[in-house]
Amino acid sequence: MLPELGHFALILALLLAGLQAFFGIAGPALGRDRWVAATIPAVAGQFVMVATGMGCLSASFINFDFSVRYVAENSNSALPLFYRVAALWGAHEGSLLLWIFLLACWTLAVAIGSTRLPPRFSARVLGVLGVVSFGFLLFTLVTSNPFLRIEPPPPDGIDLNPLLQDPGLATHPPILYTGYVGLAVAFAFAGAAMLEGRLDQLWARWTRPWTTAAWAFLTCGITLGSWWSYYTLGWGGYWAWDPVENASFMPWLVATALIHSLAVTDKRGLFKSWTLLLAIVGFSLSLIGTFLVRSGVTVSVHSFAADPSRGIAILIFLIAVIGSALTLYAWRAPLLRSEAGFELTARESFLLFNNILLVIAAACVFGGTMAPLIAQALHQPPLSVGPPYFRPTFLLPVVPLLALLAVGIHANWKRGRLAERRGPILVTFCIAAAIGTAVVLGAFGGRHLLAIVGLGLGVWIMLSSLVDPLDRLRRGLSLSRAVLGMSIAHIGLGVAVIALTAVESYTVERDVALGVGDTAHVGGYDFRFLGTRPVEGPNYSAIRAQVYVSRHGRPIVTLYPEKREYWVRRTTGTVAGIKNRYGTDIFIAMGDDLGAGRWSMRAQIRPLVTLLWLGPMLMAFGGLCAITDRRYRLAREATPASEPLRGAKEHTA
Amino acid sequence: MLRARLLAAMGLLSLVLGGMRLAHAVDPAQLPNPVLQGRYETLIHELRCVQCQDEALADSEVGIAAEIRQQIRTMLIAGKSDEQIRDYLVSRYSEFILFKPRYSLRNAWLWLLPIVLLGIGLLVAARIVRARRALLDRDSEPVESAFGEPRA
Amino acid sequence: MSTTSLQPPPPASAPHYVRFLVPLAFFVLLVAVLAVGIKHSPEVGVIQSPLVGKAAPAWQLPMLTDSGRAFGSRDLRGQWYVLNVWGTWCPTCREEHETLLQISRSTRVPIIGIDWNDDDTEAMTYLAKLGNPYGTVTVDHDGRAAIDWGVYAAPETFLVDPHGMVVYKQIGAMTPDVWRREFAPRLPGGLAAGS
Dihedral of CA C53/C59/C61/C63: which sign? Predict the structure, then answer.
């Protein structure tokens, strides 16, 4: 009964999304204000129907309804409640439903947040979102219906993939998708601007909070995935430049460029067509990422089960949505102009460099990810691209970007006036260089030039981000939320750079074979193997080892890594023993039983890894802080006619 | 029996879906000297596992991966160069086994991409900055500083 | 002016308009690449063997039935042969076993087996129970020969000509259809027969 209700709810949602799209686009175009007004009820209705669908599928999982094929494929009578709920997005069909649900949430939020915006404009935004919802709902209902039944129902399900039975599953996909899907809002604002034939500073100010919010969620989502991989799946591997990982990283790079470009368009009315293009490309990359994961076109650990017919369906959807957006762009964008000027050392200039370098980085990642497919299309022998390509080609634009950030953050709009800031720039540079060199040579015993550069850049960015806020506080002035958020976010970036440098340069990793009582010396720590014993879990049985860790004779911790066997799916899993000591991870995982009580094990020391998670979280927090600035609320209450917007006058107290 | 067949079908599906494998083969074998060990570790991280193709040779716990690693160790001890080892594997498994595309004319576009893009980026930046500088003289609006105070 | 809407600006040159078509053009190319990708997606993960059209590796392995004796490419010089890499642990090999038996009965080309990463006793029991399509079975315990042949998953089947050149490689199960379509036409008349 419930699955049929859910299925029916999705069909209704499809219809309502269609109405939302129709009223939202045709209404303003034809001047029918009643249609315009009908958009919001359509949004609300679609949301309710999609939520109902999600609810029905959740209920089927919670109640062990194995007559629903998707539940049977991803659940089991022994699966704990927590994972039964999270299993909803554990495979293709359910994760699509999650996509649709989050899109409905964003749409509802936009509808609520845009009540004071010009109604025709906001209707267009909702209309474009409706088109995307319609496409996804249609695709789901036709090719990937999660409510299909199995007759007769099997006695039990085949269990959720054990790799997914981890808290990471509960957090990573929903938050990541929130970010992915959130870029649709910027896309919709861009679409509305093109349909309306107007794009101005006020438009930029409306778009900024939504884009920054999506960016913040995407930052968190990617970091959570990386964290999950590090602790559970990859044993210290946090980024593999896998095609699907790249598919989430490229939108992030473009979104970062977009939030900075929007700042320029907002402040000075510049880079309009560029900002428009970025808004389109950002969400397009989200959609292309969706395609890559679900079409079976690439080799990836993240891919859902492949199906060429699904691939074709998604491709058609991509052509419709991205193709029309880019066609509109080619038609409307040439007419966008501005006459503002700026100097070489102005803030606009630095943001221009920021955008160029970020887009180059995204293009390199894109090229590497697509290279195998391109070689295939050109009938060339197979090409294979992995981390040894991505690492250097990514660093090439990013290192200058980080350096320019540390300098450019001091620049004023329009006239730069960097000469006035010579003092702080030099001082921060010297301190950063000193710290970088000292730490690398002292604490880590010298080695890479790159480590000095990385550490130095991270420190320099942090210091530079602190200069002006501290200066203002010293003079008794208050900080606007936007400025505070920006500073926090940049500091977070500095922290992340420091962490990445430390982890990449100074990780120690060794595989050892240990008998009971043997000790391995890895990275300055001693690992003593004390033996194993069998243990049982809710849906697995395991062998648990006991390893005593010490350093220079002083005890640190006893770790208990496990090697598990999951009953239903008959797969093995490993759980590492990890201790975090002043931000450094001490890590031990079991390998194989070598017989006679001997085991092979992997020990790792990963310095400053905690900062690798803290940094991006700070970045996201900074973004969310900036969104709450008053100027955005005021902008939502302004209309183009009443707001001349000459660059400076609003209240950034 | 239909039920059994359906269960078998789901089992097959699980094999596909369960294609996510855990990384990491723990391989305690060591080479006689640190230089060889260093080369070995670089090589096995640069090569793809031919069966679990999203993993590096270093990380895969599949049998063929262990055997190829053993083969690499043997060749290193026998004094082969890194390039010879790569050639050996590529001649049997095609360039797909490499994570790092070879420097060749065919792959030139891939490796030159960042440099070319940087060059283009530089040109574009120069053009825009020059154009906007020129407009500056006509532009007399006051603009805020980065942090809120009006400046001319 | 800081706010602008789309009023007619001074007329711009054609290159100005053309550059805004670049994203769309790029997207069209991307779609083409992705479409080709979909077409080839069933083959994702299948490694195209570079050995096809080249000399087969020289190999020599102990025989299953007599581990003291070695057998290899030297013994097969000057004749066509089919090389099948298999193991008792491999479910797909079991599926193709019947086809191999049929082929072995209907053609004069010997099927040589390499039992890969397997237990000798289990292999002998397996063949005794299910039938032995192989002219000779050899064992590869450490994977050296398998790597030499570029094997990455069982079963894999090769067709080698009298000059020692690999003519065709089948990845995955051998079926009567594959034999008819790919192997039989490449053999000189009289040697192959359908099954």
Answer: positive
